[in-house]
């Protein structure tokens, strides 16, 4: 299973093609739209999100609510395009077209490197594609993967554990339903109401200072069968693929699995998860400090991982840069921007994780139809139980 996205931030639309889905999978546009709506929300977002109202148009591969096995094409309109048609013109003879050239690279963005690499003297040709607008298409792909997971009884949730200097922890014992319910009510997707207040205040203060904030999100996947991924092939290790999926989100700089970097500080007895067996549960673990992975494969315990997002690079308090025409220094002009997008990025993280787990599921249990896939997954659950 694979996907491809196309589209510029201020172009007419984002386009997504998902290929390799089994047939007969119930695929709901509403469920894709739910994820798109969730991604648009969150305290700290800028004015662009008031312009957009993301919705997926399903153009192929689905009939009467079920996949046919053919590629699924989806489109998400950019409502802002209407104001950018002259600047984003595809055709050279467009009368209204105006280049409004970008010659000033923004620190923290792809502008300068992308311009040198692809030889663009107009950095709009870089920034339009490097924008995190593209994460709407990736969220839609994840929302498709998520429906495949749901079909197999696998569920995904996410929440924010840090914004700037304010951090919190998920308390032991929270069920996935509680995590979903609480994070959904919170403007910063935080489970703890005290931390939530502090995070909001922190975002307000940073904004007033013309600054921005990053943070950390946590994603949890439950009811995963044992053995997704592989200890045999380095490029099929699912923990590694999830790390790539997370760091590929714009502005994400690192990943922790389970207790993550703390594993480097603790003794082995405080890291590895003892194996238990009972009539009721079969094999299970006394703890889940390794976040559901051993040897690049799922253990059957929940997958738990965290991703760190750097602060938004476009600041109202300008950073220094150099004009590529004059080579003179300049202070970046003030632009419309999010000042904290961690809650929104949490939704992107959930969905890129959902996609990778769904992809690994289909690799482990190859199937032409959704029913065959579910049978394969259930057989593995049974085998693990009786092993
Ligand atoms: C959901 C989301 C929204 C973002 N919004 C902005 C924004 O409004 N302004 C900005 O400068 N960067 C924003 N970013 C971050 C940039 O896209 C990102 O830092 C940039 O593309 C450079 O990529 P890199 O940080 O991965 O190196 C956002 C990222 C995400 C995930
Ligand atoms: C459009 C989205 O996020 C954008 C990501 C982004 C960036 O530089 O990454 C910059 C901003 O774009 P604009 O300059 O048009 O306001 C954000 O709004 C989105 O999340 O859908």
UniProtKB/TrEMBL annotation:
Cofactor comment text: Reduced FMN (FMNH(2)).
Catalytic activity as recorded in UniProt: 5-O-(1-carboxyvinyl)-3-phosphoshikimate = chorismate + phosphate
GO cellular component, one term: cytosol
Tagged with keyword Cell membrane: no
Cofactor(s) required for function per UniProt: FMNH2
HAMAP family reported for this sequence: Chorismate_synth
Family: Belongs to the chorismate synthase family.
The name this protein goes by in its record: Chorismate synthase
